[in-house]
Write a structure and sequence with these properties.
This is Phosphate transport system permease protein PstA. This protein is mainly α. It contains eleven helices and no strands. It has a single domain, classed as MetI-like (MetI-like fold, Orthogonal Bundle). It is 72% helix and 0% strand. Helix 4 packs across helix 6 and helix 5 crosses helix 6. The longest helix has 35 residues. The termini are far apart.
Length: 294
């Protein structure tokens, strides 16, 4: 076999592998959307779920998912970015750095159900918060933090050394170089890491079963007091997310239209994740162009 034929065969195999992945993804998305898109309407998206009667929606679950996303990323993004900067720019070779990397790798491999049990013990019971949004956000932060740290470190390391040297040669301090040169150049990778971490927040269910709970109080959206039990802004109230709701109605729901609600909820979750990824990447490109004037 000559080199040209081997190159063509390898190219065909690569294209076949990519096509197989796209076909599987299209099949899964098509199946979920085909069964669920007919259920979605304004009433389904805004009304609360029913316990026994038919016709319930997923309004509170959608709000809880986005609120949990904000709380989780508010914790994960700054800590992950600062840890990534430290490991990429300031940490030298030594035992402490090795222990930090070992801890990050260990946390990355932990099953989410184990993190959920840890959250149940620490964030739910020991703090006295009970099942709450804050407990779920801290548990998800434990899951997402290693990923955010690794992506931040790799994104910062991928910035060419010439940019650092040029900035320092012009008289900039190390912090000014980091803030004005390295971070804008690493911004696309940081956005990608944030999107991946946010996507895990939307799809996570196992850890939230033990921390955020499987129920949600009747929310009064006119009550903006964050300490009111019925306020949607209260971070210490139970909050069933959309992913947990899908698991719950498929396992223990008593409503007669279980299949309808399950199909509609799955389709809403898929559409929300797709829309969030598209908007986040569009926003990330705009911010990157502003920061780099490109």
């Amino acid at each position: 076999m000559n080199a040209r034929l081997a190159d063509r065969l390898a190219t065909v195999m690569f294209w076949m592998g990519a096509a197989a992945v796209l076909a599987i993804l299209a099949l899964l998305l098509g199946y979920i959307l085909w069964h669920g898109i007919r259920v979605i309407d304004w009433r389904f998206l805004t009304t609360p779920p029913q316990t026994i009667a038919a016709g319930g929606g997923v309004g509170p679950q959608i709000f809880n998912s986005f609120y949990l996303l904000l709380l989780t990323m508010f914790i994960t993004a700054p800590l992950g970015l600062l840890a990534g900067i430290y490991l990429a720019e300031y940490a030298g070779k030594g035992r402490i750095t090795e222990y930090i990397r070992l801890s990050i790798e260990t946390l990355t491999s932990l099953p989410s159900i184990v993190v959920g049990l840890f959250g149940l013990l620490i964030f739910v019971n020991m703090t006295g918060w009970g099942y709450s949004l804050m407990s779920g956000a801290l548990a998800l932060a434990v899951i997402n933090l290693p990923l955010m740290v690794r992506i931040s470190e790799e994104s910062i390391r991928s910035v060419p050394c010439e940019l650092r040297e040029a900035s320092l040669a012009l008289g900039a301090t190390r912090w000014e170089t980091m803030w004005r040169v390295i971070l804008p150049s690493a911004f696309p990778g940081l956005v990608t890491g944030a999107i991946i971490a946010a996507g895990r927040v939307f799809g996570e269910a196992a850890a939230l079963l033990y921390t955020a709970g499987m129920s949600s109080p009747i929310l009064n959206f006119s009550d903006l007091n964050p300490w009111s039990p019925t306020s949607p802004l209260n971070p210490f109230r139970p909050a069933e997310t959309l992913a947990v709701h899908i698991w719950k109605i498929n396992s223990e729901a008593l409503i007669p239209d279980v299949r309808r609600v399950a199909d509609g909820s799955a389709a809403v979750l898929i559409l929300v994740v797709l829309l969030f990824n598209i908007c986040a990447r569009w926003l990330g490109r705009r911010i990157y162009r502003r920061l780099t004037a490109m």
